[in-house]
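Ticket 4471: requesting a sanity check on a complex prediction with zinc ion. Repro inputs:
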Amino acid sequence: MPRSEARDVPISLSKSLSVIGDPWTLHILKESFLGTRRFQDFQSRLGIPRQTLILRLRQMVINQLYYKKPVQHRRLIFEYRLTPKGVDLYSMILGVWRWHKHWHQTPHHLPEQLIHTSCGHQITPEFVCRSCTGSVKAGELSFAARFPNTKFAPPATRRTRIVNQYQSKAANEMVTVIVGDGWSLLVLNAIINRVITFDALQKTLGISNNVLSTRIKMLSSLNLLTQNQSTTDKRMIHYDTTPMGKDVYPVIVSLLQWGDRWLAGNNGPADLIKHKSCGSIEGFVMVCDHCNRRLYMEDVRQGRLMG
Ligand SMILES: [Zn+2]
Ligand SMILES: [Zn+2]
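Returned structure tokens:
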């Protein structure tokens, strides 16, 4: 195995974002986790343009997040059912739900309560290390590159328009906005991992001036990051994440692990994620805050719906 070295941007995160880093894709996924399966239901619940829905669902089938199941319903129709690969995004969705609940935002189409069927408690999912079972917070993981020369492939930069379009909705769709944008999430993750100046971010992410400054502006306006003068050089700005920004971490790591499991290819994941405090690379999961057992989609039911 090649020598390991630290990497600020895990390869699997950008791979995952290339598959689901799109606002509509995320909205469709959230609907699926609430039980929606039919085209007409996606369309009416999301208010999504028909052609956009056709294109997104087609792409999601190609990416093997869904399979089409024929059902008899007056005439023959097809339902969009999550594949195991799609279901495996549940941790990420729980991370989104957890964030919104914690910060008192009112997201559309997210359940107001989640109940862990096997223990009967209403839950707030907790993100923990599988090995030491300790709760995992921003910056407590390290990434070692197994293939140091693997090129980090950033998401397409076509999303400025989407950012602008979604900025107005950002207050109640914040996590969807930043995950859906792709770049915003990569910038946030890099800052959490202590890449804190404009030049360093630009170098690490291979991102243009314009794309980076749009994202920094957006993340600041959403109160996910702060900009401070350096104490040693007043001309230098240092970025830091706010507690709200740091709390996106479980979403980031869940997405990254999903990429490791499903998009890594024959050689396995390009990076090893380690829990710094216990040294384990076993991975990180969402558990019930009452019984500490791992949360699976089929074992969680929903209370009332928000939005
Ligand atoms: Zn641990
Ligand atoms: Zn439980």
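Notes from triage: The pocket of zinc ion (ligand 2) is lined by residues 116, 119, 121, 288, 290-291, 293 (CB under 6 Å). Leaving this open until the requester confirms.
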